[in-house]
Fold this sequence. Notes:
Helix content: 25-40%
Structural class: alpha/beta
Order of helices and strands: EHEHEHEHEHEHEHEHEHEHEHEH
Bound molecules: 3-phosphoglyceric acid
CATH class of the largest domain: Alpha Beta
CATH architecture of the largest domain: 3-Layer(aba) Sandwich
Number of strands: 12
CATH superfamily of the largest domain: NAD(P)-binding Rossmann-like Domain
Amino acid sequence: MTKVLIATEKPFNGAAVAQIEGILVKAGFEVAKLEKYTEKSQLLAAVADVDAIIIRSDKIDAEVLDAAKNLKIVVRAGAGYDNVDLEAATAHKVCVMNTPGQNANAVAELVFGMLVYGVRNFFNGKSGSELMGKKLGILAFGNVGRNVARIAKGFGMEVFAYDAFCPAEAIEAAGVKAVANQNELFKSCDIVSLHIPATAETKNSINYAMCSQMKKGAILVNTARKEVINEAELLKLMAEREDFKYITDIMPDADAEFKKFEGRYFSTPKKMGAQTAEANTNAGVAAANQIVGFIKDGITKFQVNK
Length: 306
Ligand code: 3PG
């Protein structure tokens, strides 16, 4: 019997888990759950006899793949799959998929929740500012970036975007101003919202040179990945520029250092972007369906390690 493990250090909500289990059980699969685990050894033990795994930001590396002798597929219920060692998965003949777009609206809504909090001085009682009329720069125009653009228009913001992989025409077709390059985006916008994945090219790319081009009163919002930030250089910039705010959904390694910039820094304690009932259900159900499609019919749509 096909056995599927739901391995979530940060669990889906109960209703989403029930739906995921329902789909897998209906397909005739056995379901195991490993939630809120704290040690890698627990994951290594849990994967020993499973054919498929549903994960979130849980790390799947060569050691986990070695321990999972029957494994055929890993589905990351979410967008970013930088937590999975794709080369090792391919070497182990394991198919890796994500569920693109399923939690995009949830992340985009959080951008604005955090932005309103930021421009209102973290609700400290002092007069803040509004988003209407401000220039918002969206870095990477994928599923999240597009949702951010849609919501920004509702706030009456002027919306700009740059995406190294998305043609300017596609950005303009969505009613957003396409800028020529990343520097231009940082130079021309009051607020920049990051939606790039963590790759060899993007890691540490949001650095002093990039951010120091931003206007007075600039805000950098990060709901993407902490790895894209050059933390030492951003700290240097924030020490130099008392007008600069950093708001993030991914706690930096140097959280304690950033906290010294009181009133100009906010981080959620745990990544909250995709943590809604709707996103949990959308991504979890998609992951379960993708596993059924792969095991029963060999469907490889959304495979990321081709
Ligand atoms: C994603 O890549 O889909 C988001 O960062 C959400 O990650 P999470 O499932 O760990 O909340």
